[in-house]
Design brief:
alpha/beta; seven-stranded mixed β-sheet; four-stranded parallel β-sheet; 23 helices; 11 strands; 46% helix
């Protein structure tokens, strides 16, 4: 699935361009353990802002950045634990924090995993081709940012109805921005545009996060490692790592669950989606307001055979809770009436809307399995509230000023009152049903074969295990690339 065949002629051109633009590329091992980043690079990072368009910020594509806007180095995984006073369940829920990545979102990691393998093998020609990043928002931001750092021209493709903040930022970073019809659920329209670009332009290569095995590879090793380390940091004597819950989106992040299943006996993986578009739960369709999770299809890189639970999240819960934790009156209620501790209150800017949906998935899982204070669930906060200021303004205009009464109602109904409904334990037949949905998108529309669809189900060693095993080979190709530019030695 992950081709690391070297095209020497193109690779030499990529090396020359990287040398001329000061590009040094980190390995996946360094992203997982940034303590291994060369000292000279760490010294230079002390003078660079987290979002600065500087090639050295490639080394900040990690869950372990010091939480600072400028000059931060590295520490342990950035995570927060949510108290029962907020969630209403006794189970321990912790969230890796995406805000402290460059661009404020962990999608820069997925984009890195998709682009760099083709760059360091010469399968992508940085002197002739543009990298096309189809996305419902954050992935194309990450792709455009990485492209800029790697001296690659980029094209961002995303729905016209996504938040204004995304478009404003992309206009300064991406070489070209293409808006497609619709909003979060209109992934098919993105695919149609990508197909058009592929057929009409010779100067582009498509990096489709929904099918790129590098997305799976990055999360399996880097996000999986960060979640395991965070759990080991916070675990108490009788704690067990019960599982992890993720809205699927591209299904890249959920790949970390495959890593964790190999470490923790009985570990469960829950896949979330919007109730208004219940593709996994009920072969359904529709539209929803949880920005950050595209749907109406099953991503190629979703290892459905390892998914234990399907959860549908009502977008009303996600949006209402996002306003609760974002409004000053909502935070005041949570601290003074609900008893949420001040430290947690100070961190409530860390979840964006999809992060709130991930938290809801954890709460529903805890209620479904009747988890106790010794059970631990994990998720990620893909981005933060910074990307949704315009959505908050829209809610204020539509619903009026926020009150203490509204805060109490929102917390009671949309968090404490969440029920273990619209959920499905994935038996073998249910997993097979969901996996079979891949055929309609990937074989009928995107050129895959039925044999390739079946291989993902029946041939674990030749598909998923094959991708996981490529980390060391990819890291060595990156090291060879850096040696060829000579930039690391010259620091």
């Amino acid at each position: 699935m992950l081709d690391l065949t070297v095209n020497r002629e193109v690779l030499l051109k990529n090396i020359d361009k990287a040398r001329n633009n000061g590009v040094i590329i980190p390995t996946l091992s360094q992203m997982r353990d940034p303590g291994t980043v060369p000292l000279k690079i760490r010294e230079k990072l002390k003078g660079i802002g987290l979002w600065d368009v500087d090639p050295l910020n490639l080394f900040r594509i990690t869950w372990k950045n010091e939480p600072k806007e400028k000059g931060g180095l590295f520490g342990g995984p950035n995570y927060i634990e949510l108290p029962p006073s907020l969630t209403g369940v006794p189970a321990r829920i912790f969230c890796l924090v995406g805000k402290w990545f460059p661009t404020g979102c962990h999608k820069v990691g997925a984009a890195f995993g998709c682009l760099v393998p083709k760059l360091v093998t010469g399968l992508f020609d940085s002197t002739l081709q543009k990298a096309v990043w189809p996305s419902t928002g954050n992935y194309c931001r990450g792709g455009a940012f990485n492209s800029k750092l790697l001296s690659v021209d980029s094209v961002a493709v995303l729905p016209e109805g996504m938040s204004r903040e995304r478009f404003d930022w992309l206009s300064d970073i991406a070489g070209e921005v293409i808006a497609t019809p619709g909003t979060e659920s209109n992934v098919k329209e993105i695919f149609d545009k990508v197909k058009e670009l592929r057929e009409t332009r010779r100067d582009v290569m498509i990096f489709n996060q929904f099918e790129e095995p590098g997305n799976y590879l990055w999360h399996y090793h880097v996000t999986g490692g960060a979640l395991s380390e965070a759990f080991e940091t916070m675990r108490r004597q009788n704690d067990r790592f019960f599982g992890a819950c993720f809205t699927t989106g591209s299904a890249g992040t959920i790949a970390c669950g495959d890593h964790l299943k190999k470490i923790y006996p009985g570990f469960k993986i829950a896949a979330g989606e919007a109730l208004q578009c219940p593709t996994i739960l009920n072969n359904g369709f529709g539209a929803h307001r949880i920005e950050g999770i595209g749907d109406k299809h099953i991503p190629w890189i979703h290892n459905v055979k390892n998914t234990d639970l399907a959860i549908a999240v009502d977008d009303r819960d996600a949006v209402s809770l996002f306003r609760l934790i974002s409004e000053p009156e909502g935070r005041s209620y949570l601290e003074n009436d609900a008893g949420v501790d001040p430290e947690t209150i100070s961190r409530l800017d860390l979840p964006g809307i999809s992060g709130v949906a991930n938290i809801i998935c954890c709460i529903k899982t805890a209620k479904y399995f009747e988890l106790t204070e010794n059970d631990v669930l994990a998720t990620v906060l893909t981005d933060s509230s910074e990307m949704y200021g315009s959505r908050l303004e829209e809610m204020r205009e539509k619903e009026g000023a926020y009150s203490r009464h509204a805060a109490a109602a929102a917390h009671g109904e949309h968090m404490l009152g969440i029920r273990a409904d619209n959920m499905l334990e994935m038996t073998y037949p249910e997993r097979r049903r969901v996996h079979n949905l891949k055929y309609y998108t990937w074989a009928e529309q995107q050129g895959k074969t039925a044999d390739e669809v079946n291989a993902l189900w029946y041939d674990e060693k030749g598909t998923w295990e094959s991708v996981r095993a490529k980390k060391d080979e990819l890291d060595e190709l990156i090291n060879e690339f850096n040696r060829a530019t000579g930039l690391l030695e010259a620091l």
